[in-house]
Amino acid sequence: MVKLKPIFTVIIMLVIASCSNEPYEFFDIGKIDANSELFRDLRSFSEIKSEEKPVCLTFIYPFNVYLYNDQSEIIDSKIIRNNIEFITALDATEEDGAIGLSYPITSIQEDGTSISINTNEELKIAIETCIKSEIIQYCNGLLEEVNCIWKVTSDTDDTRYDNSIMDFYEDGTGIFYDQGNAYRTSWISLFIGEELHINIHLEGNSEVANDWNLDWRVTSISDTVIEIMNNDKQYRITKTCGIPNSCDYVEFRECEQENTSEKAEFIFNNYTDCILSLQENVADSESVSVSFFENLESAEQETNSLDPSSYINNANPQLVFVKIKNINTDEFNIIRIVLFVEACASDGER
Predict the structure, then answer these.
(1) Which H helix or E strand runs over 15?
(2) pLDDT, tens digit, 9 for 90 and up, residues 3-21
(3) How far apart are CA 4 and CA 173, in angstroms?
(4) Digit-coded pLDDT (tens) for 234-255
(5) 98, 68 in Cβ contact below 8 A?
(6) Hey, which residues does 293 pair with through a beta bridge?
(7) Of 61, 66, 93, 268, which sits with the fewest C-beta atoms within 10 Å of its C-beta?
(8) What is the pLDDT of residue 90?
(9) What string of H, E and C letters represents the secondary structure of 289-331?
(10) Confidence of residue 187 (pLDDT cuts 50, 70, 90)
């Protein structure tokens, strides 16, 4: 009996240890307080994650999640088998509680690369990067939405660009329409630190380009309105969709020709009245001539004018320069229009 007593004592100690709240100290557990920034990041990540839509970071299940009470004691552990169970565990965590993750956790990035996350800090970086990527994709999806334009409204007393229009294309280009002129544009959305930005660049050295070639900070974003600012300049751009082909902005759309890729016939004669209606100081359309050119130099010198009865575009979208000239005084104005070819579902449908 004397020899068995130490063995019995050890067994009792093991039982007591297994029933206490301290057996997890042997594992590499990262504690995440419910009121911490990382916990909030996890919640944000769970909101954008869906089982049907893959995102930029996917956890490889199963892994263990440990639950803490308000005394920082581990009171339970759960095996998490899928994203729904992970979200449920986050939602069940008390405001003054915490969860713990047993590292390492394996994740798959958007490009298919497998990564191992070993600490809370690595987890925070991975999730923040993913959330930023999702926000950028959301922003791009809004701006690139087909048959939608964005109308500019100033949030300051400077109303110079009120009613100007932006049209963004999915290849990172676009057109900025302002007072009858169209400016080819490139753009990109990105994060600088913790802030979403939209970098806009208009081609050329015009005053309009100088005013807009800036790195715009996004202060608010929704499905229909994006608010941007740069120093003292603040604008709201509001989405409008389903606008018919008209003179509200200087873009002319035609259906793609059969058996061609992004080619269409444009009949400029059909656009003349529309173009003239945009111009100031044109009281009599019979006193002006309207001609079309592929570049500004040709328009200024009136060389290589395009056939107004039939023209096939050579790019999509394509800028065309229109010279509006008073035949009595030889005074002229050159504006830009945009030709855009779209695939139509049926004949005549846009």
Answers:
(1) helix 4-19
(2) 333 322 222 222 222 333 4
(3) 82
(4) 999 999 987 665 666 778 889 9
(5) yes
(6) 321
(7) 61
(8) 83
(9) EEEEECCHHHHHHCCCCCCCCCEECCCCCEEEEEEEEECCCCC
(10) very high
pLDDT at 107 > cutoff 90: no
Instruction: Read off the pLDDT band of 221 (50, 70, 90).
Output: very high
Structure token digits, residue 78: 């759960």
Cα–Cα dist 37/249, whole Å:
45
> Would the pLDDT of 215 be above 90?
yes
CA 222 to centroid of chain Cα atoms: 11
Report the distance separating Cα 235 and Cα 160, nearest Å: 11
By CB atoms closer than 10 A (0-12, 13-18, 19+), residue 324 is buried
**What is the C-alpha separation between 26 and 222, in angstroms, rounded?**
47
Q: What tokens does 208 get?
A: 């309009």
Peptide bond into 23 cis (omega under 30): no
3-state helix, strand, coil in the chain (%, to 5): 25, 35, 35
- Total residue count of the chain as it appears in this document: 350
Which segments of 51-113 are extended strands (E)? 57-59, 63-68, 74-80, 98-102, 105-109
* Burial annotation 268-283 (CB, 10 A radius, 16+ → b, else e): beebbeebbebbeeee
Look at the block and give the residue holding tokens 């419910």. 34
Q: In this structure, what token pair is assigned to residue 283? A: 């009281």
Residue 170: both structure tokens together: 């999915």
Residue with tokens 């100690």: 13
Say how many Å lie between the first and final Cα of the chain, rounded: 95
Contact in structure between 127 and 107 (CB atoms under 8 Å):
no
Give the Cα separation of 37 and 318 in Å (integer). Answer: 47
| Predicted local confidence at residue 2, as pLDDT | 32
pLDDT band of residue 45 (cuts 50, 70, 90) is confident
Q: What is the mean pLDDT of the chain?
A: 82
Token pair 């920082």 in the structure block, residue: 72
